[in-house]
Amino acid sequence: MTRAYPEDAHRFWMDDQRHVYVSVGGNTSALYVLGEKDIPGEMEPLRAIEVEDFGSLGLYCRMPDGTPLVHMDGRLVYVDMDGGGVKELASVEGFTFEEGCIDGRGLFYQNWHDQINVWNPATGDLNLMVTLKEYGVSWPREFPLRIGVNGAGELMALAEKDGELLVCCFGPQAEETEGTLRLANLWYNDSDVKTAAVSYSARHPDCRIGYESDWGNQEGFYQRTMAQMAVGQGPDLLFVSGEDMDRLSAGGMLADLSDVLGEDTRSQLYAGVMPAGIRDGRLVGLPVAVSGFSMVTVEDNWQGDTWTLGEAVELWRQRKEQGVYGFLPRRWSQEEVLEYLVLSDLSNSPFVDWEGGTCDFECELFRQVLELIGEHSVLEHTNLDIDGEYETARQVMEGMYLADIVYGGDIARYTNVMDYYGENARFVGFPTESGSGNRLTCYGFIVVNARTEHWEETADFLRYMYGKDFQSDNPEYLLRRDVLRDNMAPGAGNEKYETFTLTGTTVPLRDDGSSYIEDYLAFMDSCRAPARSAEYIENIIREEAGAYFRNMQDLDNTVRIIQNRVQLYLSENR
Predict the structure, then answer these.
(1) Could you read off the pLDDT of 441-491 as tens digits, one per residue?
(2) What is the pTM of this model?
(3) What pLDDT score was predicted for residue 176?
(4) More confident residue, 14 or 435
(5) Is 522 within 8 Å of 554 (Cβ atoms)?
(6) Which residues are CB-contacts of 338 (< 8 A; sequence separation ≥ 6)?
(7) CA distance 549 to 332
(8) Complete edge-to-edge strand list for the sheet that includes strand 146-149
(9) Whether the Cβ atoms of residue 409 and residue 525 lie closer than 8 Å to each other
(10) Which of 115, 175, 285, 301 supports an S-S bond with 445, CB 3.0-4.6 Å?
(11) How far apart are CA 509 and CA 428, in angstroms?
(12) DSSP readout, 131-197?
């Protein structure tokens, strides 16, 4: 066969009509379609279909009728051999068409590292199906995870265990045995919860945990499970949002977990983990994963350890007259500035009296903060590279902006910020009326049905989930100090860095060669979650303030509408 395509061909596929599809990169990013010539052994290019981003181009899989599918520019397409060009089959946000397969029902399976997702184009649902680590295997790191569907319609994956290759078959789940604990996911498609259930079940075959979710009909599943809880039934354990934890706790449906975890575990969890789940003096939930979240500034901008919203707004007004560009860098939108200044902790807000059931959003302070945010000049929001991060830090240190946002609770992010700012960094946190302004973001809570008939078993599962062994096997969102301390090692051949060995993350050391570990742990210990969920009120403020920012209503109407809507909610939910 004569080569009829560039040397940097990426992948190829042949359909049942003997057309060959080749994706290529280099100076030209295109999909070539090759057809057989009359001369035996030779082929000719029928057409080249250019794409904008070669990184998103590749041969994906075949439809049940043999039609090859191609992903390009964020779309899943197939080549129309009769009409020419491509026809879009689907486009779905958050779906990376990297490797995959399709079964006879028309469901697409796609992988990212060791995670396999399933997408139903008929409903648009995209959900996690399985994570290989749940079964003690990983994907061979030298190439992407290979998956496929066998003749019985079962998902197959080429995996690795103890250095040996093996093929995993994910067939229908076995029926649950009598007495199995039930764990229902009502909030998010979270792999850590399912991983914990599968791992615990493998270690305790006499007490398996059935993991329940229905992403094809999530709303129906949610309503059905909440109804079961209301009548004293329901699963033994639930994974829920903070708002649903509040709702279930208020109804007396959740068990008190205060005495479940042993002292060895409680002493190692970040200081804000257990308080995050306390409601009315009872520990009703435990965060599954957390991260720290803060504002960083420098002493030339603010000398205090924290600031109230009134202090922050007054500082902004003063510096605005002196030529400051803005409170936060202009990559943050007006809605995001509102989030950070006002909505980060409404449970400790100058505008809401939770005990009295009243609010005051027509006050001068709230009007001032909306006016200032409305004047905030916005550039395109982009994720900064290292040079951009250093430049932003320089602008904050020079007073062009008053602060910036620090995302994430991992040590790499913390040490990078310290590297940008040096010893000038001050984690002053979000405006708060009392306590620390550093926020603990909780990614869902595990709660226990107050009427479970398997209390000892559920408690044992929680001890396992928050124990050192499981936390070490799932280090993406750490909860324990000892796991971090025990797994930091000097950088191989580089005295300026150290490595978190569980993830391979490399983090810088101080200029004098000392570690940031204890500083980072002190920061995480200072982070606190809001004392209650205020999601409904937050959404009211976002909606009405957004209309003001878009010039759809004036300031007077905005504060009046927010006041009336929030007050109505507080009055109805006392």
Answers:
(1) 898 999 999 999 999 999 999 999 999 999 988 887 789 999 999 998 886
(2) 0.71
(3) 43
(4) 435
(5) no
(6) 370, 373, 541, 542, 545
(7) 14
(8) 146-149, 155-161, 164-170
(9) no
(10) 285
(11) 22
(12) EGGGGT-B--TTSPPEEEE-TTS-EEEEEEETTEEEEEEE-PPPPPPTT-EEEEE-S---HHHHHHH
Tokens 């707004």 — which residue? 313
In angstroms, the first-to-last Cα distance of the chain is 78
Distances (CA, A) of 473 to 170, 470, 478: 22, 5, 10
Residue carrying structure tokens 């039609």: 67
Three-state DSSP at 405 gives strand
Q: Which residue has the tokens 């003749």?
A: 151
Return phi, psi of residue 40, to 5°.
-55, 140
Scored b (16 or more CB within 10 A) or e, 139-163 reads: beeeeebebbbeeeeebbbbbbeee
Q: Are strands 58-62 and 20-24 parallel, antiparallel or unpaired?
A: unpaired
Give per-residue pLDDT as tens, 530-551. 888 788 999 999 999 999 999 9
* Tokens 């000038």, residue located: 424
Confirm if 420 and 309 have CB atoms less than 8 A apart.
Answer: no
Q: Are residues 158 and 114 in contact, defined by beta-carbon separation less than 8 angstroms?
A: no
Nearest to 452 by CA among 282, 280, 263, 257: 257
